[in-house]
Amino acid sequence: MEVIWAHAPVTAREVCDRMTGAEERAYTTIMTTMDRLHRKGLLVREKDGPAWRYAPALSKSEFEKALADGLATEILQAHGDVALSAFVDAAAQVDEGLLDRLAQLITQRRRRRE
């Protein structure tokens, strides 16, 4: 996704050519993965000759928010109060200012409900 966010619209071949790292990735693997991401709604595509050009359906920040929302929902549904307590403790360990920000977000959410 990083390559697509940085260079969209791109073909699978262009993504494969731009991929870096210790492991070499097969073009067919990249092509299959991009098709799956398209079917899941994470990529949009447009025909360009024999190839497809792909672009992200969401910005990086929108994607990260959706991912975090889904993960938070799963954790809270499975662990409720324990998860909330762990989240607050983790926020305090990372940065005490996050606790203030959390309080602000809670206040904003409650105001929207009223």
From TrEMBL:
This is BlaI/MecI/CopY family transcriptional regulator. The lineage of its organism: Bacteria, Pseudomonadati, Myxococcota, Myxococcia, Myxococcales. Pfam families: Penicillinase_R. It comes from the Bacteria. Belongs to the BlaI transcriptional regulatory family. Gene3D superfamilies: Winged helix-like DNA-binding domain superfamily/Winged helix DNA-binding domain. Keywords: DNA-binding, Transcription, Transcription regulation.
